[in-house]
């Protein structure tokens, strides 16, 4: 291990693994280490089910009715979204006109604006133009555009329209849902990017204790593990490795629920997403409900996993999620966790230590992708170019 690397990565959460893969594809010499013996970090998939009981200190073993423990792959932090909206006939007509406008919108072609200035007109005014009701506005802003608060309503509408356009185009591509969820849980994603990194020469070491991050003159120069030092020019890590360089900005409550039935009023769907907009439950933050099942190879046959999450706003976080839990009843078993939201104290450009944010309450990848692109820009000084990434990948695999 006594070598010099361009980049050392600590932690195998999805953010760290994606950045590791990107840096390796870009020709950087990468060493990736994790103190844990498994991939995924705080976003790991837990299997067998017995391990989930142990992790949450639930006494006893899972009942026989839950099937074999190995049939379960439970994501601690699921990230996907599938949404359904209910609205009346006339509301649907108005909403259809709005969606047609969005589909035709091109910020480079003023002929598609229909009297709206995308750089100046607030999104609130766009909704008013199409005479959309509050329920539809909540659905559009939070389930389609994926905003977490209503602050966007008074911002120029261009970004919101493009977010909705992305949703619609994704839906058109796959038919039933614009979102994907990997079989066997999200733990497969970090491993996939780890393999990508390895193909391009990256080195991985799991179950590797980290003794010290070595800094000289305010800048990282290496990492010490088991008495050996690996030198580096840049370091990527999750907050757990640098607790003195992060600060707490809030908390998230997550409740994993095991069910023997699909969620009511979802047409017996084997997966779904419910977003409860904040203003409908007198909150500042949305409440998310994500449900997956044996169809995704994450649960025993006939069983369902529903995970409720939201940003903590009071001293009684479990009361805050009651509206969501009521949708899931009866619940066979609950696993409750409250975790801190941690963010880096600085950009890392001086120390060259680039720290990811902890995962928020959302059940989609938008904020995680933003964090990845932000770290990449701080490390390289340039925007992440996905097309360039694909071109380099095709040099190895050939065209898709």
TrEMBL record:
Keywords: Acetylation, Cytoplasm, Golgi apparatus, GTPase activation, Membrane, Phosphoprotein. GO terms for biological process: protein transport; small GTPase-mediated signal transduction. It is found in: Cytoplasm; Golgi apparatus, trans-Golgi network; Membrane. Belongs to the Rab GDI family. Regulates the GDP/GTP exchange reaction of most RAB proteins by inhibiting the dissociation of GDP from them, and the subsequent binding of GTP. GDP-dissociation inhibitor preventing the GDP to GTP exchange of most Rab proteins. By keeping these small GTPases in their inactive GDP-bound form regulates intracellular membrane trafficking. Negatively regulates protein transport to the cilium and ciliogenesis through the inhibition of RAB8A. PANTHER family: RAB GDP DISSOCIATION INHIBITOR BETA, RAB GDP-DISSOCIATION INHIBITOR. Interacts with RHOH. Interacts with the GDP-bound inactive forms of RAB3A, RAB3B, RAB3C, RAB5A, RAB5B, RAB5C, RAB8A, RAB8B, RAB10, RAB12, RAB35, and RAB43; binds RAB3D to a lesser extent. Interacts with DZIP1; this interaction negatively regulates the interaction of GDI2 with GDP-bound RAB8A. This is Rab GDP dissociation inhibitor.
């Amino acid at each position: 291990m006594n070598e010099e690397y361009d980049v050392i990565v600590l932690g195998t959460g999805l953010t760290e693994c994606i950045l590791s893969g990107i840096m390796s594809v870009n020709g950087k010499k990468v060493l990736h280490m994790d103190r844990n013996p498994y991939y995924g970090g705080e976003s790991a998939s837990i299997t067998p089910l017995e391990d989930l009981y142990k992790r949450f200190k639930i006494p006893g073993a899972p009942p026989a009715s839950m099937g074999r423990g190995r049939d379960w792959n439970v994501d601690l932090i699921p990230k996907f979204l599938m949404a359904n909206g209910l609205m009346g006939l006339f509301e649907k007509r108005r909403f259809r006109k709005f969606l047609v406008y969005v589909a035709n919108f091109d910020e480079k072609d003023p002929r598609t604006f229909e009297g709206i200035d995308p750089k100046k007109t607030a999104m609130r005014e766009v909704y008013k133009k199409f005479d959309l009701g509050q329920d539809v506005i909540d659905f559009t802003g939070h389930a389609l555009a994926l905003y977490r608060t209503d602050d966007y309503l008074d911002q120029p509408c261009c970004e919101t329209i493009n977010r909705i356009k992305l949703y619609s185009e994704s839906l058109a591509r796959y038919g039933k849902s614009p979102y994907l969820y990997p079989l066997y849980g999200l733990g497969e994603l970090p491993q996939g990017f780890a393999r990508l990194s390895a193909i391009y020469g990256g080195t991985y070491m799991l179950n590797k204790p980290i003794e010290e991050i070595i800094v000289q003159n305010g800048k990282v120069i290496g990492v010490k593990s088991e008495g050996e030092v690996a030198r580096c020019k840049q370091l990527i890590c999750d907050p757990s490795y640098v607790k003195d360089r992060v600060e707490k900005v809030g908390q998230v409550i997550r409740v994993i629920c095991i069910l023997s039935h699909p969620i009511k009023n979802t047409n017996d769907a084997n997966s779904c997403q419910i977003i409860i907009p904040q203003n409908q439950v007198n909150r500042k933050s949305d409440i998310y409900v994500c449900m997956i099942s044996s169809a995704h190879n994450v649960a025993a046959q006939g069983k369902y996993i529903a995970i409720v999450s939201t940003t903590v706003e009071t001293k009684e976080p479990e009361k805050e999620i009651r509206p969501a839990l009521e949708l899931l009843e009866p619940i066979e078993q609950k696993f409750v966790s409250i975790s801190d939201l941690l963010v880096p104290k600085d950009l890392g450009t001086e120390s060259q230590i680039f720290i990811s944010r902890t995962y928020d309450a959302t059940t989609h990848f938008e904020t995680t992708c933003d964090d990845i692109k932000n770290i990449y820009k701080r490390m390289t000084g340039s925007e992440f170019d996905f097309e360039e990434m694909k071109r380099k990948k095709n040099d190895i695999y050939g065209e898709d």
